[in-house]
Design brief:
5-stranded mixed beta sheet, elongated, DNA-binding, 39% helix, alpha/beta, homodimer, 6-stranded parallel beta sheet
Amino acid sequence: MAAKVTIADVARAAGVSASTASVVFSGKIKVSDETAARVRAAAAELGYRGPDPRAASLRTGRSGIVGVVMSSSLRTAFLDPIAIATMDGIATSVAPLGAGILLLRDDGRTPAATEVPLDAAVLFGTHSENPELVENLVERGIPVVAVEGDPAWGVPVISLDNTEAQAQLAHHIAGLGHRNVAVVSLRWGPTTEPGFVSPASTPVIDVTRERLAGVREVFENPNVFSARGSSVDFGIEAANAILDRYQPTAILAQSDLLAAGVIRAATERGLSVPKDLSVTGFDGVAVDGLAPYQLTTMHQPAYDKGRAVGDAIARLLEGEKAPSVRFTCTFRPGNTTAPPAHSSVN
Amino acid sequence: MAAKVTIADVARAAGVSASTASVVFSGKIKVSDETAARVRAAAAELGYRGPDPRAASLRTGRSGIVGVVMSSSLRTAFLDPIAIATMDGIATSVAPLGAGILLLRDDGRTPAATEVPLDAAVLFGTHSENPELVENLVERGIPVVAVEGDPAWGVPVISLDNTEAQAQLAHHIAGLGHRNVAVVSLRWGPTTEPGFVSPASTPVIDVTRERLAGVREVFENPNVFSARGSSVDFGIEAANAILDRYQPTAILAQSDLLAAGVIRAATERGLSVPKDLSVTGFDGVAVDGLAPYQLTTMHQPAYDKGRAVGDAIARLLEGEKAPSVRFTCTFRPGNTTAPPAHSSVN
DNA sequence: TTGTAAGCGTTATCAG
DNA sequence: CTGATAACGCTTACAA
């Protein structure tokens, strides 16, 4: 536990100046092999482990940290495979920038994004609640990129063609002849309870709203059950509520996890999928344990979305403008949709 | 985009010294309301958003960042609900320290843990491969805590009574009268392919080894299939391989996810659980969509393990010693185990 | 190729 | 309660 040894100590021991020693470690300028060796030897001798990142980051203005601001707990956020894939994409794409991912929440339960040495910040999910955060970050000169948020903030937004994609699924269902469909939606608002929602109501959460709009382009007035979130169990809950009350020939779920739950609930009631009930998902993730069903769904390029975030950050860090990017989902037919049976099973 | 405004600018504008202005923002020392107001007004005027975290962290020696070093990709790590719960616990317990979680890997695909301003580091999973990292961190005076690792490094380890817990499950199965059991294990080594393993082989990964030892305390020579990792689908794969070759009356899976896959595979083959096949898990997580089965399993306090990590960090940061902690799993009986049928179904 | 000088923006300490 | 002073440990023009 010797007192802290600094680069100056190393330089002194090696008989060179601090700047030379610094350069030996950063490798940014050529140093004669001989002096470099001397510096390294001195460092080893003194137990110097390389520059202190704190001091380096003050000097260079870079910390190697990209903050990802989420609006929910870690546990909740990472329940969603899409969130994980996106994060993975972000992590991968910022790695070449020499950066890592710092998990932050915007509710005061973690250090504020403004109290941590960030090189850039990613707004993950809906943050419409908290425009001051964005403003603060931007005024500090910290590049900000949003995933699936409100483009109004003037920051680049990496998003999806949610409405069009969901409409495509709805058209597929309509084309098969279905007229009587129901929707299992994602969370309506940040704190909304699950349940049926009135046709007049509009979802607060962007993704929910956009996807629902896609269904409504095709089906006038579907019954909508807003789930507690995206999971198989919530899908089961929603499907049971729907099937207790209505006899739709198709259910459009706003996520694959929810769809898997719908299938589970339907088959447990003795309904055959897709003969008695067609089911569609959204996301195109591999739902663990769903086999032998293959969901008819829209695949979203979550990982690529994450990579786009990193690209945008890189651009912003260079002082360039970064454009918003809207990714396109692709239709993935499975074996969970079919024309409706002529008569209701009931 | 005015040039960067510093606390000195604010102080000057407010007609006070920089130190006074600093104290207004940190709140660590009393300042007269009047001067405080003047400083704040000046800050607002100039668009000063508070101290630069980089400079503050150099000066104070604290960055508010706890690094979590994982050995796999984000995607892989977060597939496991236990990992998520543990991370959640860590995030929660370091929050009061004013810290957030920085996701790091030890394979050069993210900034090295040594290049980032960490207040502390958590080694997540097996890091036996990389003792230099630990050494480097420790020499820098950065507190290190390990989750489920090798206690040999001299850092506190937060772990589980894996062997005893698994043995408890094995005794439960033996007590029901089972004599012919098989095991679905977690990954054998960091890069091992799935498959049956020879009785002589010992797992490289700590958790796998410890849990297997628990089974072997009770059952001499079970057939062991090492899965590709912890997921329902890998469990299905493993169970099918086992049931193709053997007729065990019970399968002990090393995770709940694997156990869920075993159940799925078994029921798809027409075996009834638990009548024809008893199945146990490990972890005690709520497996999404497993209902109506309730796994007989050991519950591990993953979240609390995470909290213990935070506690250890807090202690280390105070300069105290932090003890290693070994958590105890609790038996959770479900409806997936029963005495073996008198004759094989086959 | 190496050294000199000048901060990066803050905050702890201590005196007033 | 406020101010002066001195670091925190490093990097980077620029000069030699």
